[in-house]
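request received
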Amino acid sequence: MYRISDEHVDYILDDLVAKGIDMEDLQLNLLDHICCIIERELEDGGNFERFYHDNIRRFYNKELREIEEETINLLTFKNYYAMRKVLIGSGVFAVAAFMVGSLFKYMYWPGANILLVLGMVTFSLLFLPLLFILKSREARERSDKFVVGIGTLTGVLFSLAILFIVQHWPGANVLLFLSMGIAAFVLLPVYFFTGIRRPETKLNTILMSVILVGTIGLHFTMARLRPSHSQLAIATVNYVQGEALLGKMLSVNPPSPQLAEIQSLAAQVKAMVLQRYMGSATVPADFEVQHIYLRDGTLGPEFSENAAGVQLLRRLNAAIAGYEGSSGDTAIAGVLRQSVLNGDPSETGKRYTSMSLLNSISQVQMYLALPQQGKMAAK
Amino acid sequence: MIFSSELIKGTLKTIVLKLLADNSKMYGYEITQRVKELTGDRIQLTEGALYPTLHALEQEGLVTTELEYMGKRVRKYYKLSPSGKSRSKERITEFAEFMSTMSVLLNIQPKTA
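response:
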């Protein structure tokens, strides 16, 4: 009886894979079968390789793949090949439409959106479900089917989320977090614990799990992306220019004591926002050199309930109301209605971000810095 | 005389089910050897026909499997499931009726007569 070593087993397994046997189950069966033949029929010291190649030829007519094809044929269903063609076709179409669509979008060419929507919809609603049908038929155990199903669901949700983000459709974030949540808390644990139990899939399971964790982590990071420095720099420059313009207007047309009081209160509100979002009450002259930029974000606690910011806004409102009554300037009501000063000051934190509050206050200030003449004309 | 593969193809599932009904568990190579023995080499199951059939029987739930690890090799044993047992009987009865019908149809005289 010929003794088969581990090297022989590896040799045979490699050859089976090279000859196109991909199904693990079939690899195991054929490997054991050929080993049995060799053990019983090859004499000690015989030529292993020659004997193996002579005998494996008995297994097929044209090529070894026939066995796998026949197995898949019996395992799945008669229209397996038609489905596989649609699967490959839809996959290629989806990827092509997606890539060309992205190029069009980048170049601002017409038709980009149609291509992107078609590509993503084909991918998530035709390609992935078909893949699920074919793969779930191959999966034997219920846990494997479950993993394939959850994997497909995650893929569909994720690609739809990307489509929604690109198209600026509402609900994109909900889809994205839902897909990441399912991937992290359902798919990953089920996949990991079913795969790690079987010795033949252990290594692949660990590797795939690490890749999956990495991918989910990266996407989670991206989901909370902040605007780039250049965008922040532009916003800061805009703000500084606005302030310069306001300063010029006030110097050309010095305000009355009543208006000066309003301007001062407004400046205090802005200083409070700047303090939190830039670290100083005014924008430093060399902010570009130092890379100190205004950040946009939800307002701090000083703009909720009855905190300092809310009190300042109330005083500002009262001062403007006093001015409105004494000057007879009714046009200011229209300006205020569009601004942060419209509504309950204690709700400001819910309605405004740092940047939008600054802009809104600046616009009211500029209106009040206009010469009286202009306001009379507007009236 | 070795029978043609077309003749064997239609009866392969029946052969496998019957063998598994008579033996508690068998692996692929063992099945081919047993068939050879029982038929005096006149029926030789090919690997290309046997394994797809075994996989199909497994998917239909007629057989269950058991893995035996032998170093780097894994041997897969097949066993009849309860539904496989009743199916085995059904198929044998069906085939017996088929044979008697065929002998009438083709006017085959029993050899013993």
